[in-house]
TrEMBL record:
SUPFAM superfamilies, sorted: alpha/beta-Hydrolases
Species for this entry: Flagellimonas alvinocaridis
Keywords: Signal
Superkingdom of this protein's organism: Bacteria
Database matches in InterPro entries: AB_hydrolase_fold
Protein name per the record: Alpha/beta hydrolase
Signal peptide (UniProt feature, chain positions): 1-28
Length: 335
């Protein structure tokens, strides 16, 4: 087997694809899959690029956006962005390498605040375009699970961001100042990523229920991976689901949820919840449940809007985005 270099350099190129950029995809012709997340040296003038991060023998594309004129502030904060059920690419075309308008807008918002953006495509590397049809039920659903797969993607990107280096050898990203931002299925993934695995009961069995049938670890359900030693600073949850197919136990709105739902977060969560969304009741219950458990949460509720309101052209979308940026700046120690 060929030896692989310990670090790679990102050149000042447009979104250009070659072995020098794709640290985990080199030597594919030789049947070699590099499962190690490696150090990357970032050219000082680079703007955007795409890298692949290895997660369980899958190459996960990550669109990296570097803010302009912010190198004097290094090391920089970063936000890992998790897309919803519709994916993150324009026209559902990952080969076009152009993100949808929603994520291009968020890229600009992060850039304007000197925050590195890491937009994670959890679908295309696993053969999915969007979470619909066969991808909504087992066994395919387990391949893109927002409870135990997409959280692994996020944690792998966290590790990769910590390994971005400037040309002088210093870290580009502040390891203590990396946050999460997720929408819909990506919001659900934010919750899963921030789960405090140290709080799991010793006798807990990881299961999920689909259409009245229960699945366990022998049929594809995976336990969450251990909480990182230095994890995320916090995360923003936009209109996701909170039930997890009973992954965490009882429904968050049940009267016994305090005892029977095990979910607890290890870092602050900002809930951005629209009133007119069938998922909102469970998410509000989760936010209240976590507050009752003494966990750090904030809850904003938006009237007159529904699921996906972040992309709507109305005042509530703008208000929510402003609140998100202000909250991110706070937990990323920028103010």
């Amino acid at each position: 087997m060929k030896s692989l270099p310990k670090s790679f350099k990102l050149l000042n190129l447009p979104i250009f694809f070659s072995c020098i950029l794709f640290f985990s995809s080199c030597n594919n012709d030789d049947g070699v899959f590099d499962s190690e997340i490696r150090e990357i040296v970032v050219d000082s003038s680079i703007e955007d690029t795409i890298v692949y991060v290895p997660v369980h023998n899958v190459k996960v594309p990550v669109y990296l956006s570097f803010p302009h004129g912010c190198t004097d502030n290094s090391p920089l904060p970063a936000v890992v962005v998790l897309h919803g059920s519709g994916g993150m690419w324009k026209d559902d075309d990952p080969d076009g390498r152009v993100m949808s308008s929603q994520f291009r807008e968020w890229k600009e918002l992060l850039n304007n605040n000197c925050i590195v953006g890491a937009f994670v495509d959890s679908f295309s590397g696993r053969g999915a375009v969007e979470k619909s049809g066969k991808w909504e039920t087992p066994p395919e659903n387990f391949k893109i699970s927002s409870q135990f797969i997409r959280s692994r993607d996020a944690n792998a990107v966290l590790t990769q961001l910590k390994k971005l280096k400037l040309e002088d050898g210093n870290s580009m990203i502040s390891p203590a100042n990396i946050a999460l931002l997720g929408f819909s299925d990506g919001g659900t993934s934010v919750i899963s990523t921030l789960y405090d695995t140290n709080s799991t009961p010793l006798d807990w069995e990881w299961t999920q229920s689909f259409n009245g049938k229960e699945y366990d670890t022998s049929s594809g359900v995976m336990p969450p991976e251990p909480k990182p030693q230095q994890g995320f600073s916090g995360g923003v949850f936009y209109y996701g689901g909170s039930g997890g197919y009973n992954y965490w136990g009882s429904s968050t709105c049940n009267s016994n949820a305090l005892e029977k739902n095990i979910y607890q977060n290890y870092a602050p969560i900002l809930f951005q919840i629209p009133v007119d969304d069938s998922l909102s009741e469970g998410s509000i219950c989760l936010a209240n449940l976590l507050a009752e458990k003494g966990r750090p949460v904030e809850l904003n509720i938006y009237n007159g809007v529904g699921h996906g309101f972040d992309t709507d052209d109305n005042s509530q979308s703008k208000i929510a985005r402003d609140k998100t940026i202000d909250w991110l700046r706070k937990i990323l120690h920028m103010d």
